[in-house]
C-alpha cells in the first residue's frame, strides 16, 4: 500500500482529514509524516478531522493520543474534530476517553478554538476579565 | 440459518475487510447505527488480537436470529499460543503486549453476548453476538 | 398409508372442499370490513393446494422441509392479520374451519378407516392452527416493540434553548434502555444543531440507579469526545446521596441545582451577556 493521508499546511497550522478506513500501517505512516511536517513548518497547531471515520478502535484511539503527546512535546496544539455520536459512544464503552485531547464539533469551530489555544499561549500576562471561549478538553 | 461467510485473517488489511463485511451484515440485520458501530469496533479489536498475539487465523460472520430478533454472529479464531489465564486477560488494562489491554474486556462490553475459549498451545476462539 | 389417504382426498376433492370450506368460514363470520371474499377464496385455494402437496410426503413432522411452503404461507397470513386488527380466534378459524368439510369427506370415502383418518386430520389441523397462533402472537409482539420504540423517542424531546444550547428535560423513571435512547438522541442533535452545550435536566426523575448514573456519565464523556460540554441539572438530594453511595465517580462533570442555573452557565460559556433595559420615562 502506497497511499498516505494528505497533510495540508494552512499558515501556522496543519490540517488533515481522515476519510479512508484506517488500517494499521496507514496510521503508523501518518504519525511519522505528521511529526516531520510539524518540525518542517514549525506548526503551532494540528487539526484532525475524523467526521468521515465510521469507527475508532483502540488502535486508532492510541494513534490519536500518541499524536497529541508527540505534538505537545514539539509545542504544537492538537484538536480532533467531528467525531460521530455512534463512534463517541462506542469509544466510551470500549473504555477510551482520549484524556487530554482537545475536541470540537466541526472544522470551523475547531479552527477557531485552535487559534484561541495558540493565542492564549502567546499572551504573557493574561488580561483580567478577558472573554473566555468555551473550552472543551477531555479530562485535563 | 442465514448467510455465512469465512474470511482469512493473515495481514493487517484483512482487518479492514472484516470490518467492512461485519458492517454490511449489521446493516442487513437492521441494527441501529450505534449497535453497528459497536459490533464493528469489537470485531476490529478481536481480529487485531488474533493477528498480533495469535499469529492470524480466520473470521466467520453469520446472519442469524435470537428470540425473533435479527442478529450478527462472529467467530474469530487463531491457532496461536493461546491464553493461559482467561480471567486475567479479561481485566481492563491487562496486556501481554504493548497495547492498552482494552481489547478483550472492551469488546465484551460492546456486544450482547461474548464467549471465549482458549488454552495454552490450543489457540484462541472468540465468539460475539449483537442483536437488534 | 394414512398420509397418502389424506393427500388423496385433498387432491381429488379440492374444488368441493374449497367450496365447503369457504361456506364454513362464512358461517363462522367473515370480517368483511378487513378482508374481501375474493382474498379469502384465493387464500383458501392456495393453502389447500399447498396442503395437498405437503401431505403427500407425510404429515407427521410439520418441521420437515416439505411443509415449508405451508408454514411460510400461514406465517405470512397470521402476521399480516395481527397487524390488520383481526382477533386471535378469527385468525385461528381460518385453519380450524377446514375440519368440518374435511371430516365429512373422510367419513364418506374412507369407510372403516374413517376414525383413524379423522384423528390424523384433526391432529394435523390442530398443529397448523397452533402454528398460525404462534405467528399471530409474534406479529403482535413486533407491533408492541415498534410502538415501545416510537414511544421512547416521543417521550424524550431534545429542545434548543438558545443558539448553541440544547436541553433534555427527563421526566419519569429512567431505565437503562430509555437512558440510552435519550442519550443517542441528544448526541445526534448536538451534531445537527452544532450546539456546544447540552443541559441534561433530571428534576423530574425520582430515582437513579447505578446503571442510569453510568449512562449519564458515559453520555457526558461521549459529548466531550465530540467537542461539546454537558451540564447536569436538577439533581435531587436523594439522588446526589445515591450517586455518592454507589461510588459513581462524577469526575469533572458540571452539575447545577436547577435548569435556570445551568442555562446561565451555558450563556456565560457562550459569552452571551443579559442586560436589563433601562426603563424610559
TrEMBL record, chain A:
STAS domain segment(s): 3-114
* Protein's name according to its UniProt entry: STAS domain-containing protein
Record InterPro entries: Bact_StressResp_Reg, STAS_dom, STAS_dom_sf
Q: Which residues cross the membrane?
A: none
Which branch of life, at top level? Bacteria
Q: Which PROSITE patterns does the record cross-reference, listed alphabetically?
A: STAS
Q: Which Pfam families match?
A: STAS
Instruction: Please give the organism.
Output: Pseudomonas mangiferae
From TrEMBL, chain B:
Q: Which domain of life is it from?
A: Bacteria
SUPFAM superfamilies in alphabetical order = ATPase domain of HSP90 chaperone/DNA topoisomerase II/histidine kinase
Q: Where is the Histidine kinase/HSP90-like ATPase domain?
A: 34-132
Cross-referenced InterPro entries, in alphabetical order?
HATPase_C_sf, HATPase_dom
Q: Name one Pfam family in it.
A: HATPase_c
Protein name, UniProt field:
Anti-sigma regulatory factor
UniProtKB/TrEMBL annotation, chain C:
Q: Which UniProt keywords apply?
A: Phosphoprotein
PANTHER family with a match to the protein in the record: RSBT ANTAGONIST PROTEIN RSBS-RELATED, RSBT CO-ANTAGONIST PROTEIN RSBRC
Tell me the superkingdom of the source: Bacteria
| Residue ranges of the TM segments | none
Secretion signal: which residues?
A: none
Question: Per the database record, which ranges form the STAS domain?
Answer: 155-266
Q: What is the recorded name of this protein?
A: STAS domain-containing protein
Species in which this protein is naturally found = Pseudomonas mangiferae
Per its UniProt record, what InterPro entries does this chain match?
A: Bact_StressResp_Reg, RsbRD_N_dom, STAS_dom, STAS_dom_sf
Listed Pfam families: RsbRD_N, STAS
Amino acid at each position: 500500500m502506497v497511499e498516505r493521508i494528505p497533510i495540508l499546511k494552512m499558515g501556522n497550522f496543519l490540517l488533515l482529514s481522515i476519510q479512508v478506513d484506517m488500517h494499521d500501517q496507514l496510521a503508523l505512516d501518518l504519525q511519522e509524516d505528521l511529526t516531520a511536517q510539524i518540525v518542517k513548518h514549525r506548526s503551532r497547531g494540528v487539526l484532525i478531522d475524523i467526521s468521515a471515520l465510521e469507527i475508532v478502535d483502540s488502535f486508532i484511539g492510541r494513534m490519536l493520543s500518541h499524536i497529541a503527546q508527540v505534538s505537545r512535546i514539539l509545542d504544537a496544539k492538537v484538536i480532533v474534530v467531528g467525531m460521530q455520536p455512534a463512534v463517541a459512544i462506542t469509544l466510551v464503552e470500549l473504555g477510551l476517553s482520549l484524556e487530554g485531547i482537545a475536541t470540537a464539533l466541526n472544522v470551523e469551530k475547531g479552527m477557531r478554538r485552535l487559534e484561541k489555544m495558540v493565542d492564549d499561549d502567546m499572551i504573557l500576562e493574561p488580561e483580567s476579565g478577558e472573554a473566555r471561549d468555551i473550552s472543551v478538553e477531555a479530562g485535563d | 440459518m442465514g448467510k455465512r461467510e469465512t474470511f482469512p485473517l493473515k495481514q493487517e488489511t484483512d482487518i479492514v475487510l472484516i470490518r467492512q463485511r461485519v458492517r454490511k451484515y449489521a446493516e442487513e440485520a437492521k441494527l441501529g447505527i450505534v449497535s453497528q458501530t459497536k459490533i464493528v469496533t469489537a470485531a476490529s479489536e478481536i481480529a487485531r488480537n488474533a493477528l498480533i498475539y495469535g499469529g492470524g487465523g480466520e473470521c466467520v460472520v453469520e446472519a442469524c436470529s435470537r428470540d425473533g430478533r435479527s442478529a450478527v454472529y462472529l467467530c474469530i479464531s487463531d491457532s496461536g499460543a493461546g491464553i493461559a489465564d482467561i480471567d486475567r486477560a479479561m481485566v481492563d488494562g491487562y496486556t501481554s503486549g504493548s497495547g492498552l489491554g482494552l481489547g478483550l474486556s472492551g469488546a465484551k462490553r460492546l456486544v450482547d453476548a461474548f464467549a471465549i475459549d482458549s488454552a495454552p498451545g490450543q489457540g484462541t476462539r472468540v465468539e460475539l453476538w449483537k442483536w437488534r | 398409508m394414512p398420509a397418502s389417504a389424506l393427500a388423496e382426498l385433498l387432491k381429488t376433492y379440492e374444488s368441493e372442499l374449497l367450496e365447503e370450506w369457504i361456506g364454513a368460514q362464512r358461517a363462522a363470520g367473515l370480517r368483511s370490513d378487513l378482508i374481501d371474499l375474493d382474498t379469502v377464496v384465493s387464500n383458501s385455494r392456495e393453502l389447500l393446494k399447498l396442503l395437498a402437496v405437503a401431505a403427500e410426503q407425510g404429515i407427521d413432522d410439520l418441521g420437515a422441509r416439505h411443509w415449508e411452503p405451508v408454514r411460510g404461507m400461514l406465517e405470512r397470513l397470521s402476521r399480516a392479520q395481527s397487524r390488520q386488527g383481526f382477533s386471535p380466534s378469527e385468525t385461528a378459524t381460518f385453519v380450524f374451519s377446514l375440519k368440518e368439510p374435511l371430516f365429512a369427506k373422510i367419513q364418506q370415502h374412507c369407510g372403516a378407516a374413517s376414525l383413524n383418518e379423522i384423528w390424523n386430520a384433526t391432529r394435523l389441523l390442530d398443529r397448523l392452527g397452533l402454528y398460525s397462533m404462534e405467528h399471530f402472537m409474534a406479529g403482535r409482539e413486533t407491533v408492541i416493540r415498534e410502538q415501545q420504540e416510537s414511544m421512547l423517542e416521543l417521550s424524550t424531546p431534545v429542545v434548543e434553548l438558545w443558539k448553541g444550547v440544547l436541553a433534555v428535560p427527563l421526566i419519569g423513571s429512567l431505565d437503562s434502555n430509555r437512558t440510552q435512547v435519550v442519550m443517542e438522541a441528544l448526541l445526534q442533535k448536538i451534531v445537527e444543531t452544532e450546539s456546544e452545550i447540552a443541559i441534561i435536566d433530571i428534576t423530574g426523575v425520582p430515582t437513579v440507579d447505578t446503571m442510569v448514573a453510568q449512562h449519564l456519565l458515559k453520555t457526558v464523556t461521549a459529548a466531550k469526545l465530540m467537542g461539546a460540554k454537558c451540564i447536569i441539572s436538577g439533581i435531587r438530594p436523594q439522588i446526589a446521596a445515591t450517586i455518592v453511595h454507589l461510588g459513581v465517580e462524577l469526575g469533572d462533570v458540571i452539575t447545577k441545582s436547577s435548569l435556570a442555573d445551568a442555562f446561565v452557565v451555558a450563556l456565560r460559556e457562550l459569552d452571551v451577556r443579559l442586560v436589563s433595559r433601562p426603563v424610559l420615562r
